[in-house]
Amino acid sequence: MDTIGLYRTTIGKKAVMAVTGAVLLLYVVAHMLGNLTIFSGADAIDGYGRWLREIGAIWPTRVALLGAVALHFVAAYQLTARARKARGRYEHRRRVQGSYAARTMRWGGVIIGLFVVYHLLDLTVGWLNPHGVSGEIHANVVADFQHWYVVLAYTVAVLALGFHIRHGLWSATQTLGVTTSRVIGLGAAVLICAGFLSVPFAVFTGLVS
Ligand code: HEM
Where are the beta strands (DSSP E) in 100-176? Predict the structure, then answer.
């Protein structure tokens, strides 16, 4: 079977979900760890951002992320449409088994997508940031999280990401037959949420200023 033929199968689409999900998860973990450099001071995080630019990591990462997000979205959409069609007229009840997880993933995905647009306008472009100076990462982040509503928006998005990762990782590792898939999903989600949320709460409480 060729690549296109494989992609047409449900297994092929699920494999695309898993591989693109893994790419996105890798980025999320790297980004979360990079953010933690803020605890070493302004020079550390601003220098880290400068270094990423100097080694030319920015644009290849953007292209890979965009490709991964597009494929992840299209495969998810097609799998949902296929499952709905398969249930067809035999399915009269809306609340079928597994639909809670499916709905959580779909709405979680929408929240994360909307957040990324806001986040880019806030901390990458700077238009929605109270400081908004390119390259001054520490100052931009500190200016942001003085405001409870910005902390709240980031908290909601990070929790949505946590639920998404928990279910996605559980589902993917279970498919591979891993017996500890529940622990892996929950553990990774908790660590990632804690890492991301430590920054807004450290700024809001004055620990980082
Ligand atoms: C509290 C949580 C977060 C903080 C403090 C934070 C901080 C930042 C900062 C400072 C930048 C701009 C870096 C620069 O100017 O070079 C950035 C960019 C970015 N962040 Fe976050 N971020 C957070 C959460 C997230 C999450 C949860 C996601 C993904 C779901 C994410 C995805 C991105 C992306 C895609 C970029 C653009 C990178 C680029 O310029 O290509 N961030 N973030």
Answer: none
Cβ-based neighbours of 115, under 8 Å, separated by 6 or more = 153, 154, 156, 157, 160
Cβ(58) – ligand 1 distance below 6 Å: yes
Farthest CA pair distance, the chain: 61
Give the start-to-end residue ranges of the domains of the chain.
3-91+99-204
Q: How many residues does the chain have?
A: 209
CA-to-CA distance for 110 and 70, rounded, in angstroms?
A: 13
Question: Does residue 51 surpass a pLDDT of 90?
Answer: yes
Query: Distance from the CA of 196 to the center of ligand 1, in angstroms?
Result: 10
- Read off the pLDDT of each residue in 5-18 and give the average, rounded to a whole number: 92
Cα(144) to ligand 1 centroid in Å equals: 13
Cβ–ligand 1 distance for 119 under 6 Å, the answer yes
Q: Whose CA is nearest to atom 24 of ligand 1?
A: 196
Distance of CA 119 to the CA centre of its chain: 12
